[in-house]
Amino acid sequence: MKNNTITILGAGLIGSLMAIYLKRQGLDVQIYDKRPDKRKTPYDEGGRSINMALSHRGWKSLEQVGLKDKVLPLAIPMYGRKVHDEHGGTTFIPYGKANQAIYSISRGKFNQLLAEEAEQLGAQIHFDHKCSEVDFRKHEITFETPSGIEKLSPKVIIGADGAYSALRMSMQKQIRFNYRQEYISHGYKELTIPPTAQGEFAMDPNALHIWPRGKFMLIALPNPDKSFTCTLFLPFEGTKVCFEKIQDSQDLDTVFRAYFDDAYQLMPDLKTEFFKNPTSALINVECYPWVQGNSLLIGDASHAMVPFYGQGMNCGFEDCYILNQLIEKLGTNSWDLVFEKFQKKRKPDTDAICQLAMENFIEMRDSVADPKFQLRKKIEAKLHELYPKEWIPLYSMVTFSDMSYTEAYAQGKLQESIMDRVMADPLITENWKNLDYEDIINQMETAKAV
Ligand SMILES: Cc1cc2nc3c(=O)[nH]c(=O)nc-3n(C[C@H](O)[C@H](O)[C@H](O)COP(=O)(O)OP(=O)(O)OC[C@H]3O[C@@H](n4cnc5c(N)ncnc54)[C@H](O)[C@@H]3O)c2cc1C
Description:
Elements: E1 5-9, H1 13-24, E2 28-32, E3 51-54, H2 56-64, H3 68-71, E4 76-78, E5 80-84, E6 90-94, E7 102-106, H4 107-120, E8 124-126, E9 130-135, E10 140-145, E11 148-152, E12 156-159, H5 166-172, E13 178-193, E14 208-212, E15 217-222, E16 228-235, H6 249-259, H7 261-264, H8 270-276, E17 280-288, E18 291-292, E19 295-297, H9 300-303, H10 312-330, H11 335-365, H12 371-386, H13 394-399, H14 405-423, H15 428-431, H16 437-449
Parallel strand pairs: 1-2, 1-12, 2-8, 5-14, 12-19
Antiparallel strand pairs: 3-7, 4-7, 5-6, 9-10, 10-11, 13-16, 13-17, 14-15, 15-16, 18-19
Helix pairs in contact: 1-4, 1-10, 2-10, 10-11, 11-14, 14-16
Bound molecules: flavin-adenine dinucleotide (FAD).
InterPro entries: FAD-bd (IPR002938), FAD/NAD-bd_sf (IPR036188), Kynurenine_monooxygenase (IPR027545)
Domain FAD-binding: 6-348
Enzyme class: oxidoreductase
């Protein structure tokens, strides 16, 4: 397979960053997206603007393509979780060391910046081109456009067309394609906390705010315009508090006053937004192989995960970083080899982060409110302070390092089992300061050696 024109499906975050990487390799890049060009037609995000947490893996890729300084002004550092209890009290749980933060960034603006950078480097974006089918036998893509059907016969295709990827759907019609999708029981809805009358942030802007309530939760991330974008995660149906049971303003008032009263006081547009904004589903997608002939899936198209580790985009950016590394190593004359190596290397890691994202949902909505969980985090932070190389909390391995997700997962499970033993001490709340930390490290080293 030899060709230096690359067709990318999807000008989302991952497609745009991949285009930047490929342009820097001197390749011809053509991107096709079903959306209209937002610069020409105002595009309604439809209450799905989404603020995201950008962390180390994402920054690393942005730095490599020289974009870190351009992205920084769009991002607000969040140094930890601010947990709001039902009585309006708050507890701050740092994410890592004092200077370690994840960064809140609006998906829309960030996407626009990346797409424009790709264009400036010479990538061509064809908006209003919805891929409806890829015929692998004929090497042909079919697009639906406002002026009718268009067909194209590209040599190399990278599918970055998101969780409902058209390329992946065409792959599903091929033999021996494995595919698994799972909708979780919860959906989400976006809401807003506007700036105060004085034009200030209504809460601490340098934290990710979280109202964990067992089976459901609300989170809020800061925006540069001093508002917060909130996301309400509730079961669709079947529980005392669920989307199905909030039918009118009174139901909404009752839920918010009972569970999120301090946030409620800061949300003047709650009713309008709640009933106007869509309730969206959350999906986990795993599939394999990611390669079919001359086509490769990356980003959410190959591994859409639930958003509870804040890694979907970061992981997709890491896909681009690793694919670029392989292109540098193997050149642009053997895309089949590059794609094959990429999927073999990357698949175990994306499986690990998909799994961690599912598990973190329980931590966010439930455990963070538990004082024992908070103590556990403190003990782990102390271990990390005393033995920075030997003990790295799982969250830090995933968020503040580029250790492979597989390795982080395995090490995290080991540490979890040791911490379970530590926390089993009924007097741990009193004894934790006098723990034998060296012994804990020894236990871990022994377990690793087995
Ligand atoms: C509520 C929520 C919160 C999240 N929070 C975080 C977070 O904090 N941190 C994080 O790292 N990740 C987060 N994510 C995940 C993140 O949004 C995704 O991982 C990321 O957007 C994936 O980028 P992508 O480019 O692969 O797909 P997308 O962003 O979905 O982009 C796909 C692009 O392809 C185009 N497209 C789709 N179908 C076609 C077609 N048939 N033909 C042509 N074009 C097509 C679309 O128009 C779009 O432009 C969150 C996700 C959700 C839902």
